[in-house]
């Protein structure tokens, strides 16, 4: 199991007063910089931020302590890297100049736009502006209009706004597009000769039905002695993106593709992501491959790693493969059944060795042409998804083990591992107490017993209403997986060595892995400079992409629920705080808040953090995570991306604090049946 990466903090060094870190600005305008290695954040007052904005990476000079001597104070002396350079807003045009008035409260000043940089924008237009210059002695940054949104739908403005707010540009620079356009459609004959030619071997891709960037393919052929040759073939993006090229710089800047409900903000220009690199059917492609000799028991007899040229014979969607697995006929059915049998064996072996079996549940939206959500589909991970997942995991682990075994000048080769630390001990204790309400006993003595306890809990909850809540809460107790050159293993997967190799079209760390891997194969190692810095940047961008995707999904949920204001739904309590609880509808997985203010008619509720519950002072009534409730949609606010729920029948219970609620609703159900008689002294639940 991996060792912990948690490091002891320290106070500022008396002999060194300058630190680097990320600026976070609160709603009040006060800033705080998280500097690596310091015990506490550095406080930055509004007037000492230079031109830095929320999320920027800055250099800070420590100036002393606050009056009470409890907090370090500092001044921003340099902006090293901006989180966001593009902003949405409204254009104001004056006789000699113009401004963009930003929509976001995270941008505290207007952007000055020279008249020759309006690019067609007119007074009153909604537009996107990019900052091109902002010196320390000027109040307003100088910008240019990059797109006008006047005639776009509210959805378009919202989605684009979320991208730029999190630092993802809406378009590629001209020099990047020009560089991508230089590559010919025809493959180089000399390059083909350098590679293993596998074009005559059956090769397929399996992806979402609407995918265009096909990163990976699987080849298959039967061998003697009960073994099969299974190849994992990955788009060779590193052939097209050379280090320090304009394409490379832009790919690193973005570090990841961002997947929103109605679009993809790609890491690479479409010329590469959807055309040259994408493993499209019936086309020859350059790939980087791991080819295994493996039997149905999951035993790998041998493997080969190297560059190849391949040809996809058939493009499958996950749905098509799932139908074949479930018994329908189809192309290459025998091969798919064998691949699935091997994948199931690999999966079973992983969990026996300590991997944690969190299932993935994906919410997808059915959209009309204007991007308006018509419905919500809950997609579960099925065997077709797991088939691809297992072979990708096997390839990623194999690559990490291979590079991890190579030395450079007596030391391990610097390499961007994907690591996952052990769970936080304090969070785990609280969670294990909560899980005991569902009849699950956690053994916290070792990392191995912890993972077994998690799997036991997930097995017992599977198919029950509380499954999603337990999974989400369990995930919150976990450390976040990150990229780093310090290999501590991947706790969640149970792997001592792991990396990301299989998605270079949409993840920059995979491009780095390909480059280092090729150096190792050729025994010509040139360590990448500042690799740990690049790892941290990629981890940060991954987090930003996830935040953007969550915000976009929330926007669509709010948009969808607007039509149901006043309607009632069954829900599960998914979160609890001092100011209320969140409930997620069973049918749509749409989460909203029930405010504590709306519960005053029942009782005065207190937040019990250890039990993830609100508990009434007088009635002992409890609202705890995992409990079933009946909610009515009170409002759906797009501007705030917020859904508010209320509890049906609440108003009729005013003043009846001493009695458990018995009120029904229009469908005849009793919204608080599951809380009846649930006093403080009686907190036990039946084992499930």
What does this 3D model show about the protein?
- Helices cover 25% and strands 28% of the residues.
- It is built from 13 helices and 33 strands.
- It is globular and about 75 Å long.
- A seven-stranded mixed beta sheet has the order 11-18-17-14-13-12-19. It has a five-stranded mixed barrel with strand order 1-2-3-5-4. A five-stranded antiparallel beta sheet has the order 8-7-6-9-10.
- Helix 1 (154-165) packs antiparallel against helix 13 and helix 7 crosses helix 8.
- The protein has five domains: 18-81, Beta Barrel (OB fold (Dihydrolipoamide Acetyltransferase, E2P)); 87-151, OB fold (Dihydrolipoamide Acetyltransferase, E2P); 178-421 and 483-550, no CATH class; 425-478, no CATH class; 565-675, OB fold (Dihydrolipoamide Acetyltransferase, E2P), CATH 2.40.50.
- It has 688 residues and is an alpha+beta fold.
């Amino acid at each position: 199991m991996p060792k912990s990466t948690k490091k002891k903090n320290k106070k500022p060094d008396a002999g060194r007063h300058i630190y680097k870190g990320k600026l976070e600005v609160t709603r009040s305008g006060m800033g705080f910089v998280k500097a690596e290695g310091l015990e506490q954040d550095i406080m930055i007052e509004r007037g000492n931020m230079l031109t830095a904005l929320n999320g920027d990476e800055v250099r800070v000079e420590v100036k002393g302590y606050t009056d009470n001597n409890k907090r370090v104070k500092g001044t921003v002396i340099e902006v090293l890297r901006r989180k966001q350079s593009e902003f949405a807003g409204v254009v104001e045009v004056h006789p000699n100049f113009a401004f963009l008035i930003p929509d976001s409260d995270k941008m505290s000043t207007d952007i000055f736009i020279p008249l020759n940089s309006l690019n067609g924008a007119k007074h009153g237009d909604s537009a996107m502006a990019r900052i091109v210059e902002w010196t320390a002695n000027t109040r307003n940054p100088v910008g240019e209009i990059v797109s006008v949104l006047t005639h776009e739908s509210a959805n378009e403005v919202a989605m684009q706004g979320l991208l730029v707010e999190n630092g993802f540009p809406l378009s590629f620079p001209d020099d990047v597009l020009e560089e991508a356009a230089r590559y010919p459609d025809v493959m180089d004959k000399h390059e083909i000769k350098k590679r293993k030619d596998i074009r005559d071997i059956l090769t397929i891709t399996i992806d979402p039905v609407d995918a265009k960037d096909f990163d990976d393919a699987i080849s298959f052929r039967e061998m003697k002695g009960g073994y099969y040759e299974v190849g994992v073939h990955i788009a060779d993006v590193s052939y097209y993106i050379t280090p320090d090229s304009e394409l490379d710089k832009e790919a690193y800047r973005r570090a990841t593709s961002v997947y929103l409900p109605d679009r993809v903000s790609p890491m690479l220009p479409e010329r590469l992501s959807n055309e040259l690199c994408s493993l499209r059917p019936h086309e020859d492609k350059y790939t980087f491959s791991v080819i295994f000799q493996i039997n149905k028991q999951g035993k790998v007899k041998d493997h080969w790693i190297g560059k190849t040229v391949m040809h996809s014979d058939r493009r499958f969607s996950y749905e098509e493969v799932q139908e074949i697995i479930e018994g329908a006929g189809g192309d290459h059915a025998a091969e798919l059944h064998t691949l699935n049998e091997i994948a199931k064996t690999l999966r079973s072996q992983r969990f026996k060795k300590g991997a944690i079996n969190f299932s993935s549940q994906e919410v997808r939206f059915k959209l009309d042409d204007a991007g308006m959500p018509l419905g919500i589909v809950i997609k579960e991970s099925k065997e077709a998804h797991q088939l691809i997942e297992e072979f990708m995991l096997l390839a990623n682990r194999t690559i990490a083990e291979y590079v991890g075994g190579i030395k450079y000048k007596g030391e391990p080769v610097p390499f961007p591992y994907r690591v996952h630390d052990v769970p936080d001990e304090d969070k785990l204790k609280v969670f294990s107490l909560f899980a005991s309400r569902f009849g699950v006993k956690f053994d916290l003595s070792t990392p191995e017993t912890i993972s077994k306890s998690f799997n036991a809990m997930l097995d017992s909850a599977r198919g029950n209403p509380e499954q999603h809540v337990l999974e989400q809460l369990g995930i919150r107790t976990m450390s976040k997986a990150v990229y780093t050159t310090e290999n501590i293993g991947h706790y969640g997967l149970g792997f001592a060595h792991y990396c990301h190799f299989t998605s270079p079209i949409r993840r920059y760390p995979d491009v780095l892995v390909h480059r280092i891997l090729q150096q190792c194969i050729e025994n010509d190692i040139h360590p990448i400079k500042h690799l740990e810095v690049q790892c941290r940047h990629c981890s940060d961008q991954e987090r930003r992409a996830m935040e953007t995707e969550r915000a976009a999904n929330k926007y669509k949920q709010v948009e969808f629920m607007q039509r149901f204001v006043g309607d009632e739904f069954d829900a599960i309590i998914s979160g609890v705080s001092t100011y209320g609880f969140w409930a997620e509808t069973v049918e749509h997985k749409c989460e909203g808040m029930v405010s504590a203010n709306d519960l005053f008619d029942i009782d005065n509720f207190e937040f019990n953090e250890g039990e993830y519950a609100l508990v009434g002072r007088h009635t002992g009534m409890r609202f705890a995570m995992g409990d079933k409730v009946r909610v009515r949609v009170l409002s759906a606010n797009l501007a705030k991306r917020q859904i508010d729920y209320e509890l049906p029948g609440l108003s009729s219970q005013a003043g009846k604090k001493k009695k458990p609620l018995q009120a029904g609703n229009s469908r005849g159900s009793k919204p608080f049946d599951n809380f009846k008689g649930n006093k403080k002294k009686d907190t036990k639940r039946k084992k499930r």
